[in-house]
Design a protein that fits this description.
The mean pLDDT is about 95. By secondary structure, this protein is of the alpha+beta class. It contains four helices and six strands, in the order H-H-E-E-E-H-E-E-E-H. It has a six-stranded antiparallel beta sheet with strand order 3-2-1-6-5-4, with helices on both faces. A hairpin with a 6-residue loop joins strand 2 and strand 3. The relative contact order is 0.17.
C-alpha cells in the first residue's frame, strides 16, 4: 500500500475512524515488525485527528515502557497499576478519562494534557501494550473513540 492517507476531513469522527480502519489494516498486514506498525498507527491517528499526544507503551516485566508515539516528550516508564495507563493495563480494560486531574494517581507527563483514553493491546489474551491518546481539551473522548481504538489495537500482533 502507498503511504498516502485518504482522510475525510470535515466528516464525523465515526466516519473518519471508518475510513482509517481499512487503511491501517493495509499498512499493518504483512508487516511483522511490531514497532513499525505501532509507529504508523500513531502517525495516522495524530494526522487524522490532531490529538495532543498518541502513543504506545509496551509491557516490559512489571512496567510499561514508552514505545512509538507522536507528540511532545513523554514519561518513559510507568509502574503496573499506576496512572491511567498502568490502571488500564492492570484492569485489562479501556479507560476514558474526561478530566485527568480528577483521576486518582494520574501521572502528569504534560500539564497540557486534559483528557485521555487508554486501550489495552492484547496478544494471545495477555495485555502486551497500551495505546494512550491524550487531548489538550477536557472531555474529548467518548465511546466512539473507545470502540474504534479497540478495533485499531487488534491490528497490533
Amino acid at each position: 500500500m502507498a503511504e498516502d492517507l485518504d482522510i475525510p476531513y470535515g466528516a464525523s469522527k465515526e466516519e473518519i475512524y471508518k475510513a482509517l480502519l481499512p487503511q491501517l489494516q493495509a499498512l499493518t498486514e504483512g508487516e511483522p515488525d511490531l514497532i513499525a506498525n505501532m509507529a504508523n498507527i500513531t502517525s495516522v491517528l495524530r494526522e487524522a485527528f490532531g490529538f495532543f499526544w498518541v502513543g504506545f507503551y509496551r509491557v516490559e516485566g512489571d512496567r510499561l515502557v514508552l514505545g512509538p508515539f507522536q507528540g511532545p516528550p513523554a514519561c518513559t516508564r510507568i509502574i503496573y497499576g499506576r496512572g491511567v495507563c498502568g490502571t488500564a493495563w492492570k484492569d485489562g480494560r479501556t479507560l476514558i478519562v474526561p478530566d485527568v486531574d480528577k483521576f486518582p494517581g494520574h501521572i502528569a507527563c504534560s500539564s497540557l494534557s486534559r483528557s485521555e483514553v487508554v486501550v489495552p493491546v492484547r496478544n494471545n489474551g495477555l495485555v502486551t501494550a497500551v495505546l494512550d491518546v491524550d487531548s489538550d481539551r477536557l472531555d474529548h473522548f467518548d465511546e466512539i473513540d473507545a470502540f474504534y481504538l479497540e478495533k485499531i489495537c487488534t491490528l497490533i500482533r
